[in-house]
């Protein structure tokens, strides 16, 4: 039996075997819309011709699908061109922000991320030359600021942004078990333009964006950006429980996110062994060991992601961040 429209869509984003992905597409698009998605890429007129409808009808449906997060647009000299979401990650991130998404749709995404995503993510991690995301150290702790490069300084990224918007964190929107702030995902430059055109977030200025960064740090959220030295379309503020990217290392032992170039180091002479840092670290990188002089904490270098969250709450100011990776660790 030849695959139906939704099975073909799942195949197009490399999820051929997934009944859940087929069902997610079915919830987003009726059969006419699914046919347009399969015909993409192209202009509305080109796609209309392929599926046998008017250009006006095709355009209206494509705009609906853009709003729902499965079709992406680009302005070209020959007019607006439409394309299907590239892969499951783009389908996930964009469609969950569909403002009118029914609760069952979000529940199905939750099931997908719990049951199928870890295996799929493992396969991606084996294919990618470098993880697509990277941790950025929080604002306060790296004292030798001259060694921080622009693209690993959230304030610098925010201040240089041409436009900014904030959207809900898709992982917490679906899962939400951690109870941490949800409206904290910053979109930058073309990411912000896309957000505002779709109506899935609100525009913020640089001051408001920095306030979101501070609020995220207070809540113990880890900053994550695109793993590139020249650009990032987002600053994610991620939690341990819900994040479908950061949690993989601790739970399954593989990574889709690189650490920052920094690592936490404890000054044993200052450390009182209170354990606050160990509670704060969601990569389980800090242990409290018994020493002659009393309990002290120590950091496991292979587990530390360089987020800096442990530094800001240490009552003895016993932790500092040191540079452990060269500049070329970050791909261009
Ligand atoms: S990657 Fe992090 S901030 Fe982004 S949506 Fe997931 S948990 Fe939220
Ligand atoms: S929070 Fe500071 S003082 Fe407390 S155990 Fe950690 S390093 Fe030591
Ligand atoms: S020890 Fe944990 S909390 Fe501290 S910087 Fe490393 S990963 Fe972050």
How would you summarize this macromolecular structure in one to three sentences?
The chain is of the alpha+beta class and 332 residues long. The protein has helices spanning 5-12, 19-28, 31-39, 44-51, 55-68, 88-95, 103-115, 117-127, 154-160, 170-174, 190-198, 206-218, 247-252, 276-280, 309-312, and strands at 42-43, 71-76, 79-84, 133-136, 164-167, 185-188, 202-203, 222-226, 234-238, 257-258, 262-266, 286-291, 294-299, 319-323. Bound molecules: iron/sulfur cluster (3 copies).
| Distinct ligand kinds | iron/sulfur cluster
> What class, by secondary structure content?
alpha+beta
Q: H/E order of the elements?
A: HHHEHHEEHHHEHEHEHEHEEHEEHEEHE
Number of domains: 3
Say how many strands there are. 14
Adjacency order of strands in the biggest sheet = 7-5-6-9-8-4-10
- Alpha-carbon distance between the two ends: 46 Å
Low-confidence stretches: none
Strand content: 15-25%
Q: What would the principal axes of the Cα set say about the shape?
A: elongated
The radius of gyration computed from the alpha-carbon positions, rounded to a whole number of angstroms, is: 22 Å
Assembly type of the chains comes to single chain
Pfam family, one: Fer4_21
Protein name: 4Fe-4S ferredoxin
Keywords: 4Fe-4S, Iron, Iron-sulfur, Metal-binding
InterPro entries: 4Fe4S_Fe-S-bd (IPR017896), 4Fe4S_Fe_S_CS (IPR017900), Fe-S_Ferredoxin (IPR050572)
